[in-house]
Design brief:
By secondary structure, this protein is α/β, with parallel strands linked by helices. It contains five helices and 13 strands. The strands form four sheets. It has a six-stranded mixed sheet. A three-stranded mixed sheet has the order 3-2-13, with no helix packed on it.
Length: 227
């Protein structure tokens, strides 16, 4: 992922000082409306271009997903679509994709609002569904997916993703299965851990567009090799 500009981890010094920029996340604090920030950036979009990698990752998860006896894998827009496709082919079952329907346009004071729907495909009442996404964090989209499955009288038997950065292994009774489970912290902007970095501008708000800056920090302070 790092070679394809999809992974960054901010280096830290011996006293836990930041040696590179922290990064802005898309999720916002519901109270302040400000973006959360953290020290790890993950972007699976570049890896989507190499489907054989997704296929290999999916195969590594199959032994933990097959016992759920799924009949369908449902991909979340947009990152979960190809994840669902690879998992479904490895399991030899159906694959469907959820869509976003805009219900309120963005204004000068509010964001666009949308709901999750099944526009292209549908579920049968006896379907056993794996809800798939690439990165699992706050379960906002996958949670909508679980609710959508329930609205069709089907059963969500698992949530699956390549990277689970949350603390959860079960989400409201639904098992969470991932290739990698590594809980990563995210900070409010006023958190003492990151407030000084934000104050001095040591933050990449759009990490995808600032890769050169992120890569320079990792090259200047490489992580010790694992043995």
């Amino acid at each position: 992922m790092r070679g394809l500009k999809g992974y960054y981890k901010c280096p830290r010094g011996p006293n836990r000082e930041w040696l590179g920029p922290v990064v802005g996340y898309t999720e916002c604090d519901p109270v302040t409306g400000l973006q959360y920030v953290g020290d790890v950036y993950l972007n699976f979009a570049p890896i989507e271009q190499y489907r054989f990698v997704y296929d290999e990752w999916a195969v590594k998860m199959i032994d933990r997903l097959r016992p759920f006896n799924p009949t369908v894998v449902m991909g979340m827009p947009m990152g979960g679509i190809l994840v669902a496709d690879s998992i479904a082919r490895a399991l030899a079952c159906r694959v469907i994709y959820a869509d976003r329907k805009v219900v309120a346009l963005a204004t000068s004071t509010s964001r666009e609002k949308s709901i999750l729907i099944l526009g292209r495909h549908d579920l049968d009442p006896d379907d056993r569904v794996i809800v798939a996404d690439d990165v699992l964090n706050n379960f906002r989209t996958t949670g909508e997916g679980v609710a959508l499955v329930g609205s069709k009288s089907a059963m969500a038997v698992a949530i699956a993703g390549f990277f689970n950065r949350s603390l959860h292994r079960v989400w409201f009774g639904v098992p969470v299965v991932s290739l990698i489970h590594d809980p990563l912290p995210q900070y409010q902007q006023e958190d003492p851990e990151v407030a000084a970095e934000i104050e001095k501008g040591n933050v990449a708000w759009k990490p995808k567009d600032e890769w050169d800056r992120l890569e320079a920090a990792m090259l200047a302070h490489p992580e010790p090799e694992q043995t």
